[in-house]
Write the structure tokens for this entry.
Amino acid sequence: MKANVSFVGVSDAVTLVGSLKRGEIDGAVRGVLSSAQVIKQLKTDFGLKEVMRTAILEDVRGKQFLLAPVGIDEGSDRESRLALVETTAAYFRDLGWDISIGILSKGRPEDRSRSDEVKMSLEDGEWLVEALRRSGLRAEHFGILVEDAVSKAELIVAPDGVTGNLMFRSIHFIGGGKAYGAPVVNLGRVFVDTSRAKSTYSDSILLAAGLVEMRSGR
């Protein structure tokens, strides 16, 4: 099935999410609507405990990769990051992409003694790698070396959502990288979240249309 792209603007989260829930549209992009309101409505209409988002980015060199968590209230503990990574891997596996995973921490392994925060972050990163490998996923711990992680892995996992959000903004708004949007990976429908600060949403709309087409052809 080829995705039929049409532009239907709505001014509130209830209408947008409700249209997706009722099947009136095949996919949705948040655009300028409030993130908090849209997430709340997704939880209500789809019965979700949490909304899991994974951003699709491209750095200034043209390397495309995934980044999560990107919401400031997401990924605050290692268990939630594990669930997010496993759900993201399953989402893209269904689309034919077996991703490799790069786990980030707040320091290098030799920085363990510098602070309790760094030590705990390193321990969390090591725990995540072991848990993901037990699940049959390809994962590697890169410590704080994000440049190595982006070069070698396809899904970059930040130490928490605040860090992920800062990385996203640094890459896109300062570093000249591209941000295509963040699909919700635990929804069962195509919903692409975006930043209200983007200058255009055409790339996010095309991403949503492509995801609809790929999912319908499974």
User: Anything to note?
Assistant: The chain has a mean pLDDT of 92. The radius of gyration is 17 Å. The first strand starts at residue 27 and ends at 29. The chain has two domains: 1-51+187-218, 54-179.
